[in-house]
Write a structure and sequence with these properties.
Layout: H1 3-9, H2 12-16, E1 23-25, H3 26-39, H4 43-54, E2 57-59, H5 63-93, H6 100-107, H7 111-117, H8 120-125
Parallel strand pairs: 1-2
């Protein structure tokens, strides 16, 4: 979802109660958000969006930093998937029931991580 669409979809209460944290890069603000705000005729909608912008965290990053972050994310993902696969193999060898919880416990990763990388269909096929 594009940033501007996400902001427009926010409930007014979410914006005012600060339950939503929105992060922008400078290019999104310059190229997308400011022109949209200038085009708004509805003052109330403009006020809601400005409130969201006031709570926003502006991120500046270089292409090198973005590439390094992407590389680190891929490495963490690969490591988690490997741990999960090893845990499934261990559970099979020990003839134990294979569930999200048992995989997470054996792999040493969180329950959420297991759910993220293994579907319910895959669990049932073990």
């Amino acid at each position: 979802m594009k940033t501007i669409d996400y902001i427009k979809s926010l409930n007014e209460n979410e914006v005012y109660s600060k339950k939503v944290r929105i992060e922008f890069n400078l290019y999104e603000i310059r190229d997308t958000i400011l022109p949209y705000l200038e085009s708004l005729e509805d003052c109330h909608e403009r006020e809601v969006l400005l409130k969201a912008l006031d709570n926003a965290k502006i991120i500046e990053y270089s292409p090198n930093k973005a590439n390094a972050a992407e590389k680190a994310t891929k490495a963490r993902t690969a490591k988690a998937k490997e741990k999960i696969q090893n845990a499934v193999n261990i559970l099979r060898m020990e003839d134990k029931k294979i569930t999200y919880y048992s995989i997470a416990k054996t792999a040493g990763v969180s329950y959420s991580t297991v759910k993220k990388y293994i579907s319910l269909n895959e669990i049932n096929s073990f």
